[in-house]
UniProtKB/TrEMBL annotation:
Name this polypeptide is given: Glycoside hydrolase
Record lineage: Bacteria, Pseudomonadati, Bacteroidota, Flavobacteriia, Flavobacteriales
The entry's keywords: Carbohydrate metabolism, Glycosidase, Hydrolase, Polysaccharide degradation, Signal, Xylan degradation
Pfam families: Glyco_hydro_43
Signal sequence extent: 1-20
CDD domains: GH43_Bt3655-like, GH43_BT3675-like
Residue intervals passing through the bilayer: none
GO biological process, one term: xylan catabolic process
Native source species: Flavobacterium reichenbachii
Any one GO molecular function term: hydrolase activity, hydrolyzing O-glycosyl compounds
Length: 644
C-alpha cells in the first residue's frame, strides 16, 4: 500500500437510502439531506509508524478542509491494531442515521507491502468514541495459508441483504489482487463467513482500492487497475453480489501522470460528485467533478487542505456532529462560521418556546414534520441552555399510545409553566385530529399525561368555517388569569379554570381580526400592551408570514397597525414561508426572540406543496421600536448567538 488514496465513499449507500427516504414522503427521513452541512475527512498521513494512524479534518463546503487535533491521531493505533499501525480509513453512516462504522487496514509499511493479514472494524455513536475489533482473514478462515495481503477495506449497506457488506482486496501467492467481500455480523465485530469474490476485471489483471457509490439504483465501483497502463476505471451493477458487472473501458483520471487511490463522494444538497485520486509520483492529488459519474472535469484550483492526507474518506455530517468534533479536538481558526438556523435538525414546524424556571433551560415544542400531508402522530421536545445547541429529549406524547380521542394529525402544540402549591407543573395543549386537548407533567421534558378527552371539539357560536387547531396559552400578568386561544380562520378564546385542564363556562368568545388572519395565534404582554401575532396565507405558500395587532386587553379588541408585518421570507436568500411563530422573553430582561418555521433550506421551495410539510425551525431576535411597535424581523441563516 504505497497508494495514497482519498477514498471518500462512506456515503455511498447512505445517499441511496437518504434519497429513498426523501422520495417516500409518508415518514420523515432518518437524516434529512438538508441537515448535512459539513464534512468529516478521515485519513492517515504517511509511512512512518507514527503516521500510520487515524486523523480527522473538517470542511463546511466540501472544497476547503482543515485538520483537527493539530493533525495528530485521534485514535491510538497501538490499541486498536495487531500490527501497531493502521492505514486506509473508510467511514460510513449507518442506516439508523446515528451509528458510524469505520474499517481500516491493519498494517505498518515498515514490515513490507505483503506483510498484513488483518483489517480492523470499528463502531461509534458519536464519531469520538470507538469500539474496535481485529479480523485476521488468515487465522479466521481456513484456506488462506498463502494469503499475502489484505488491503483497503470499505463498507456499504446492502439493502437487498439487509446487512453491511465489507469489501477489500486480497492477494494470494502467485495470483493478482482481487476484490472480495463478506457481510459483517450484527455487532460489527467480525465477518459472518469467509470472503467471496466481489469483482475482478475481465482482463483478469490485479485491481485494488475498490470504492463503491450508489446512484439511481445502480452501484458504481471505482478501482485502480494494475495493467501495463494502470489507472482509475469503473464498473457498475444493480446487485452487489451478483457478479454481473458492466465495465467502463475508459480511464477516468484527467492526467497522464501515474495515479491510484481513487474515491468519490456526493456534495451535500447538490447533484455533483467529486472523484479524487492520488498523483503519487508528484506528491499531490487531482480533484474532478461529475454529475453522471462518467464525465469528469478538473477542479484542482477550487480545493485546499492544510494537511497532506493519505488514503482517506469523507463523510457528510450535520452541524451538531461537527460541533461534537470541534468540542473534542478544537475549532480550526480558518473554518468558516457555522450558521445556527435552523436550530433543530430534521423536519419540524409550529414551534412553541418556553423558559423553565424549574430546570433553568429553554425548550422548543414543535409539530413533528416530514409526514405526508401533515400526518404526524407524536410530539417531541428539545432542550437548550443557550438557544443554539438543542438536545432531542425524545417523544413526550404519542397520540396512538397515549391519547384515546385522537390518533392522527398531531399539530401545533403550546405549553405553560405554572407553580401550584409550591411545585412547578406543565400544561401542554395540542391539536389531534383537528381537536384540541391538554396533557400535564411535572417536568418540561415530560412524559405528559393526557386529560382523557378533547378540551375543544366544536366551533364557537357563529363560526361556520375553519378548524379547531393551533392552541396558544397565555397568563395575563395583570390579573393572573390564564386564557386559551385557538382557531384556523378565526380566533377563539376562553378562560381556563385554575386546574388548567378545563375551560370556565360562559367565557368562550371570538376575537375579531382582519382578513390577513389565517392561524397560529400567539399572545405576549410588554409594557402595558398585549400583542397578538398570527400567520397569514397557507403554510404551503412561499408567502406565509407573521403579522400582528395590539390591544389593551387579552380579550381584544385588536388594533391593527398599518405596517404590521413581523417576519416574512427573503427569496433571494432562499428563505420562504416564515410563519407560525412563538416568542420568548429572556427572564427579567427586555430581550426577546422569535421562534418560527420556514420551508426547509435549500430544497423546500423545490418540493411544491410538500414544502408545506417539510419545514424547519429557526430563531431570530425580536425587537421593538420606542413607540412599542414591532420592528420587522429580518430572517437569517446565521440565527442568534449563544446566550448565557
Amino acid at each position: 500500500m504505497k497508494r495514497i488514496q482519498f477514498t471518500l465513499i462512506a456515503l455511498m449507500s447512505f445517499f441511496s437510502v437518504l434519497q429513498a427516504q426523501e422520495d417516500h414522503k409518508d415518514v420523515p427521513p432518518v437524516i434529512a439531506e438538508k441537515d448535512l452541512t459539513a464534512y468529516l475527512f478521515v485519513y492517515f498521513t504517511g509511512n512512518k509508524i507514527e503516521e500510520e494512524a487515524v486523523c480527522y479534518a473538517v470542511s463546511t463546503d466540501g472544497y476547503h478542509y482543515y485538520h483537527l487535533n493539530n493533525n495528530k491521531p485521534v485514535l491510538d493505533s497501538k490499541i486498536i491494531s495487531s500490527t501497531g499501525g493502521v492505514r486506509d480509513p473508510h467511514i460510513l453512516r449507518g442506516e439508523d442515521g446515528k451509528t458510524f462504522y469505520m474499517v481500516l487496514t491493519d498494517m505498518t509499511s515498515s514490515k513490507g507491502w505483503d506483510s498484513n493479514r488483518a483489517m480492523i472494524l470499528l463502531k461509534s455513536t458519536d464519531l469520538v468514541n470507538w469500539k474496535s475489533s481485529v479480523v485476521n482473514i488468515q487465522t479466521a478462515f481456513p484456506g488462506n495459508e498463502n494469503l499475502k495481503r489484505v488491503w483497503a477495506p470499505q463498507t456499504i449497506y446492502d439493502s437487498k441483504a439487509g446487512k453491511y457488506l465489507i469489501y477489500f482486496s486480497l492477494q494470494h501467492a502467485g495470483g493478482p489482487d482481487k476484490i472480495y467481500y463478506a457481510y459483517a455480523n450484527k455487532d460489527f465485530t467480525a465477518l459472518e463467513s469467509a470472503p467471496k469474490l466481489l469483482f475482478v476485471p475481465k482482463s483478469e489483471k490485479a485491481c485494488i482500492d475498490g470504492d463503491i457509490i450508489e446512484k439511481d439504483g445502480v452501484y458504481h465501483l471505482f478501482y485502480k487497475t494494475e495493467t501495463e497502463n494502470p489507472g482509475i476505471k469503473s464498473a457498475s451493477t444493480t446487485d452487489l453480489i451478483s457478479g454481473n458487472w458492466t465495465e467502463n473501458d475508459n480511464y477516468l483520471q484527467q492526467t497522464k501522470e501515474s495515479v491510484e487511490g481513487s474515491s468519490i463522494f456526493k456534495l451535500n444538497n447538490s447533484d455533483d460528485y467529486i472523484l479524487m485520486y492520488d498523483v503519487y509520483k508528484k506528491g499531490r492529488y487531482q480533484f474532478t467533478k461529475s454529475k453522471d459519474l462518467e464525465n469528469f472535469s478538473v477542479i484542482d484550483n477550487d480545493i485546499s487542505m492544510d494537511f497532506k492526507p493519505r488514503h482517506g474518506t469523507i463523510l457528510p455530517i450535520t452541524r451538531s456532529e461537527l460541533k461534537r468534533l470541534t468540542a473534542k479536538w478544537g475549532t480550526p481558526e480558518q473554518l468558516p462560521k457555522i450558521n445556527n438556523n435552523p436550530v433543530l435538525e430534521g423536519y419540524y414546524a409550529d414551534p412553541d418556546i418556553l423558559y423553565s424556571n424549574k430546570t433553568k433551560k429553554y425548550y422548543i415544542y414543535p409539530t413533528s414534520d416530514g409526514f405526508d400531508n401533515w400526518g404526524g402522530y407524536y410530539f417531541k421536545t428539545f432542550s437548550s441552555d443557550n438557544l443554539v445547541d438543542w438536545k432531542d429529549e425524545g417523544v413526550i406524547l404519542d397520540l396512538k399510545k397515549d391519547v384515546s380521542w385522537a390518533d392522527r394529525n398531531a399539530w401545533a402544540p403550546c405549553i405553560i409553566e405554572k407553580k401550584i402549591k409550591g411545585k412547578y407543573k406543565y400544561f401542554y395543549y395540542f391539536t389531534g385530529a383537528q381537536k384540541i386537548g391538554v396533557a400535564s407533567s411535572d417536568d418540561p421534558a415530560g412524559p405528559f399525561k393526557d386529560s382523557g378527552k378533547a378540551l375543544i371539539n366544536a366551533k364557537p357560536d357563529g363560526i361556520k368555517g375553519g378548524q379547531e387547531i393551533d392552541p396558544d396559552v397565555f397568563t395575563d400578568p395583570k390579573t393572573g388569569k390564564s386564557y386559551l386561544y385557538w382557531g384556523n380562520m378565526y380566533i377563539g378564546v376562553a378562560e381556563l379554570n385554575e386546574d388548567m385542564i378545563s375551560l370556565k363556562p360562559g367565557t368562550t368568545k371570538v376575537i375579531a381580526v382582519d382578513k390577513t388572519f389565517r392561524e397560529g395565534t400567539y399572545v405576549i404582554y410588554r409594557k402595558g400592551i398585549y400583542y397578538f401575532l398570527w400567520s397569514e396565507d397557507d403554510t404551503r405558500s412561499p408567502n406565509y408570514k407573521v403579522r400582528y395587532g395590539t390591544s389593551k386587553s387579552p380579550l381584544g379588541p385588536i388594533e391593527i397597525p398599518q405596517n404590521n408585518i413581523v417576519i416574512q421570507g427573503i427569496p433571494d436568500q432562499g428563505i420562504y414561508a416564515t410563519g407560525h411563530n412563538s416568542v420568548l422573553q429572556i427572564p427579567n430582561k427586555d430581550e426577546w426572540y422569535i421562534t418560527y418555521h420556514r420551508f426547509s433550506y435549500p430544497n423546500g421551495i423545490k418540493m411544491g406543496r410538500a414544502g408545506g410539510f417539510h419545514r424547519e425551525v429557526c430563531i431570530d431576535k425580536l425587537e421593538f421600536n420606542p413607540d412599542g411597535s414591532i420592528k420587522q424581523v429580518i430572517p437569517t441563516h446565521q440565527g442568534v448567538k449563544p446566550i448565557k
